[in-house]
Specification:
This protein is α+β, with helices and mostly antiparallel strands. The chain is built from 29 helices and 13 strands. Helix 18 (328-335) packs across helix 21 (381-394). Mean pLDDT is 82; it is low at 1-20, 477-486 and 489-542.
């Protein structure tokens, strides 16, 4: 007891029972126990594992894919872990690419275009104490030159900045985050290798951190976001986060301030685009993390209950569930639309002492302000901003359904995204449902039907124009303008009467003035029973 206390006080952690406890005990679970259906394993993942094993290396399907297989689900992504180095992996596949600096991994690519599949291959990593790592004074952004030659480095707070030291499988399992993500499956002999009772936790529907949660969050604060993502994803299956794993989350969230903004932005997108956006918002509220993860994520949570943003989140979850692609530009355009819309209206109306602007320049300026205030300088802003801008700038063009505008609009590369955006606006009553249905039909119709649709719009506009012209209530002026019009009308009638009297009396009008009264008299209806009608006037003038 005393020896253990002294060892703990001195920070000793290597060797003996403590070392075994840290790395766990290897358990090989056969197929009759874990009951994974081999048919659920992707053939390309099998091919990667088989190729590595035939080359003499260890290789397993690893991570969340094994967890999903245990639960009887077909995984969407497959990762592979091996004792081959990235260079050795790359040499075995025709289309393989080494990526990353912080964690070097290999992407093995199958297929091309949108149908391509990526199998991510990582090398077993050694579990190293922070005391054994090289330390840098700055962070991942400020110490890039210093980190270039390092394989394992941490900053002053203990956050791991480099982790590219290779090691055995048991150490690789210990440095993974959650027990249910630290299992290895060999599709050849159908054995699951489990070091940290991941199978038991999967059966108990428990999300548990390997090791001390506070320490693990300090090593990599992004694990906080991963904890939220996995708890949201697995909540529908009944999983709950272990109390000890959840306890340090709020306090540890302060560590995210030192994580590069580009990395946080990418992690935020994973939260919102993996098919569990609504559940993620619920988990953030439940865990007390509605603010503080990332500024743009704070806006998402704040607006998640508004009809438009909620519809966008639900639509994103639906598309992911159906296996359809989703783009971050569309979802973020929905989240920030309220800012753009309000800024646009403010500029058009000239509020707060501003000079009123035409609609399109006003919209462009409103978009620029939103980008500067909400997006900032993050990875991928160039393309992201371009796509968002196109979606927003197309919205007023949907109001014009005549001439060549509809034809040119449907040919735009971002038309479908802009239309889906407008469709959501119609769903919440911001745009006429009839307009959304018209564009839906126009975008898919042949040329003959498109002509009919354009003619339909022209007829509707003519009908509305006639209704406005004939509507006495709509045409009736108000206030001083009405009084002036009544007075002008009275004066004009009096002048007409005087002109008619002159003509009937035989007076000859001066040159150049005879046509005017004749024209006015022709426009007026003949007076009932009158002897001084238009006929008399015309005869006198002749």
């Amino acid at each position: 007891m005393i020896k253990k206390f002294i060892d703990k006080l001195l920070g000793k952690s290597a060797g003996g029972a403590q070392g075994k406890s840290r790395f766990g005990k290897r358990q090989e679970v056969p197929a009759e126990v874990h009951k994974i259906d081999p048919a659920l394993v992707d053939e390309r993942a099998k091919n990667v594992v088989t190729t590595l094993q035939q080359a003499g290396y260890e290789a397993y399907v690893v991570g969340g894919a094994v967890r999903d297989l245990l639960l009887g689900l077909r995984p969407k992504d497959f990762d592979v872990a091996t004792n081959a180095t990235p260079e050795q992996v790359k040499s075995l596949f025709r289309r393989a690419f080494i990526i990353g600096r912080r964690f070097r991994i290999v992407h093995v690519v199958y297929g091309r275009g949108r149908e391509h599949e990526v199998i991510e291959v990582s090398t077993f990593r050694a579990y190293m104490d922070n005391a054994a790592a090289e330390q840098v004074a700055g962070n991942e952004r400020t110490s890039k030159g210093e980190l270039a030659s390092m394989k394992h480095a941490v900053d002053a707070s203990g956050r791991v900045l480099r982790d590219n030291v290779w090691g055995p499988q048991e150490e690789d399992a210990a440095r993974r985050d959650f027990t249910v993500n630290a299992m290895y499956y060999d599709p050849a002999n159908q054995i699951v290798v489990d070091y940290h009772n991941g199978i038991k936790d999967a059966q108990k529907l428990t999300l548990r951190m390997i090791g001390d949660p506070a320490t693990r969050y300090r090593e990599d604060p992004v694990r906080i976001i991963r904890a939220i993502r996995f708890s949201a994803k697995l909540a529908a299956l009944g999983f709950k986060m272990e109390a000890k794993t959840a306890a340090p989350l709020v306090e540890s969230s302060k560590l995210l301030a030192d994580v590069p903004q580009s990395r946080l932005f990418d992690e935020m997108l994973k939260l919102l685009q993996t098919g569990h956006a609504i559940a993620t918002v619920e988990q953030l509220r439940k865990l007390g993390l509605v603010t503080g993860i990332y500024p743009l994520l704070d806006v998402v949570v704040e607006r998640a209950d508004s009809p438009f943003v909620k519809a966008a989140l639900q639509d994103t979850d639906r598309r992911v569930g159906e296996g359809k692609p989703v783009a971050p530009s569309f979802l973020l355009a929905c989240v920030l639309w309220a800012d753009v819309r309000d800024g646009w209206a403010q500029r058009i109306e000239g509020r707060h002492g501003q000079r009123p602007q035409p609609p399109f320049p006003a919209l462009q300026d409103a978009i620029d302000d939103v980008f500067n205030a909400r997006i900032g300088d993050v990875s991928g802003r160039g393309k992201l901003a371009g796509d968002m801008r196109e979606i927003w700038m197309m919205q007023p063009r949907f109001d014009k359904r005549t001439g060549s505008t509809p034809y040119s609009l449907v040919e735009q590369a971002r038309f479908r995204a802009a239309f889906d955006f407008m469709r959501l606006r119609a769903d919440v009553g911001e745009v006429s449902e009839a307009i959304a249905e018209w564009w839906q039909e126009f975008s898919t119709a042949d040329d003959l039907r498109r002509q009919d649709l354009l003619e339909q719009v022209r007829d509707e506009q003519k009908t509305r124009q006639r209704v406005r012209t004939r509507d006495p209530v709509a045409a009736k002026p108000r206030g001083e303008a009405a009084a002036r019009q009544r007075q002008d009308g009275s004066d004009q009638r009096q002048a007409d009467d005087e002109a008619e009297t002159e003509v009937e009396a035989g007076a000859v009008p001066p040159d150049g003035e005879a046509a005017a009264p004749r024209k006015r008299r022709r426009r007026r209806k003949p007076r009932t029973g009158g002897g001084g009608g238009e006929g008399g006037g015309s005869a006198a003038a002749e």
